Amino acid sequence: MITITKTKDLEEFCDHARNFSYITIDTEFLREKTYFSKLCLVQLALPGNAKGNVVLVDPLTEDELSFEPLLKLFIDKAIIKVFHAGRQDLEIFHNIGNIIPEPLFDTQIAAMVCGYGEQVSYEILAKKILKINIDKTSRFSDWSKRPLTEAQENYAIADVTHLRGVYEYLAQKLKSNDRASWIKQEMDILTSHKTYDVNPRDAWKKVKVRNKSPKFLSIVRELAALRDNYARKKNIPRNRVFKDDSLLEIASSNPKSLKELLGLRLLNREALAEPICSEILEAIDMGINCEFETMPKIRLNENKVQKNDALIDLLRVLLKNVSDKNGVSQRLIASSSELEDISRGVEGLPSMGGWRYEIFGRIACELCDGKISLGVDGNNIKILTISN
Questions:
Q1: How far apart, in whole angstroms, are the C-alpha atoms of residue 208 and residue 248?
Q2: What is the pTM of this model?
Q3: Are 364 and 318 contacting, i.e. CB atoms less than 8 angstroms apart?
Q4: Is pLDDT at 378 greater than 90 in this prediction?
């Protein structure tokens, strides 16, 4: 096992990597006390057992280490970049170099169309596919401390060495099942810059609100944007600025002065500091005085009174049956909210196109239209055609 601490050594490894068809990648990072992830380690593995094919890249070394050679490798279209549940890893590299590794293969997504269930872990795949037990005891250790322990190094290396076998098995299974295109939509999401370019003006959408009035939502939008921008600038977690319940209390109380703001019980120390108090008051004022046309609005379900719970339950049964029959994760075929949309006849849904339509969407439409029904035959669900 080799630890790279110098740019020249990283460049030599990346040149060597171009002789192979794929590379497995993982990272170790910390994010508990920061807005942006603090990258502590990058693990890389190439096919084969040669000593130089598995390396740790240490960004916390005292030597000056540039990631430029690795970023260039990541955008080399001739090499497949393999991750497991790689969204956070990809976000890190997007923040470092504004790039997203391509072409990409995520083994967790691939496993979802190969019969291994939803969001299956790496250790479970290694056990089921390779018959290997992976020691995960170092998962939550402090990866920023140096030197790394032997246990940490072994854990880090295992995250990419066994990933090679998992990738090769799943890639071959996708090819033999002719399902490589089934994961394209999910891979497209992972490789889209929009996935990682978070607009602070959209941060309010992640706050769970009960009050749906446009003016209230306008205040929530301004406060959420303020919080996000402040957290980015200070590189601290959003909740260190103020938590969601504090944000909602501010929006509901609508304080007009610093005294009224400081009287709120849920504000934490960071939110009580200047100059953010004055910025909070300004955000409230901006939300209140926003033009109605530009206020955020939550579209209420116009057909809510027509919601058919019994039909939705039947769609859930059908979805599970299709999932089990085809060995594909239910969530990958259709989400719970999508089932309700299907029952209401909403058009343009993901399940109404491509392979999803072929295995589920078409039958779901027939069920909603009363052309088929579901029956029970022992432990099996049967699809019954209804004659006119």
A1: 9
A2: 0.88
A3: yes
A4: no
Q: Tell me the C-alpha distance between 201 and 211, whole Å.
A: 19
When the pLDDT of each residue in the chain is averaged and rounded to a whole number, the result is 92
> What does the pLDDT look like over 341-357, one tens digit per residue?
999 888 899 999 989 99
Cβ-based neighbour number of residue 376 at 10 Å: 9
Distance separating alpha carbons of residues 244 and 10, to the nearest angstrom: 43
Rounded CA gap, 341 and 307, in Å? Answer: 9
| Residue position matching structure tokens 């088929």 | 372
Q: Last residue of a domain, which of 154, 176, 195? A: 195
Q: Which two tokens stand for residue 154?
A: 């072994």
Cα(214)–Cα(218) distance, integer angstroms: 6
Answer yes or no: do 78 and 141 share one domain. yes
Instruction: Write the pLDDT tens digit of every residue in 197-253.
Output: 989 999 999 999 989 899 999 999 999 999 999 999 999 999 999 999 999 999 999
CATH for 269? 1.10.150.80
Domains of the chain: total? 3
Give residue 364's domain range: 304-385
One domain for residues 50 and 182:
yes
In this structure, what DSSP letter does residue 232 have? Answer: H
Question: Is the domain of 284 the same as that of 364?
Answer: no
Shared-domain flag, residues 288 and 318? no
Name the pLDDT band for 304 (thresholds 50, 70, 90): very low
Question: Which DSSP string corresponds to 89-156?
Answer: HHHHHHHHHS---SSEEEHHHHHHTTTS-TT--HHHHHHHHH------TTTTS-TTSSSPPHHHHHHH
Q: Considering the domain boundaries, does residue 299 fall inside one? A: no
167 with 287, same domain? Answer: no
What is the predicted pLDDT for the residue at 191?
94
Domain closes at, from 266, 294, 322: 294
Do 223 and 346 lie in a common domain? no
User: Partners of 43 in the beta sheet?
Assistant: 26, 56
Q: Are residues 13 and 70 in the same domain?
A: yes
Identify residue 112 by its one-letter amino acid code: M
Cα–Cα–Cα angle for 355, 361, 367, rounded to 5 degrees: 155
Can you tell me the distance from the alpha carbon of 342 to that of 351, in angstroms, rounded to the nearest whole number?
9
Q: What pLDDT, on a 0 to 100 scale, did the predictor assign at position 305? A: 40
Q: What DSSP designation does 352 have?
A: G
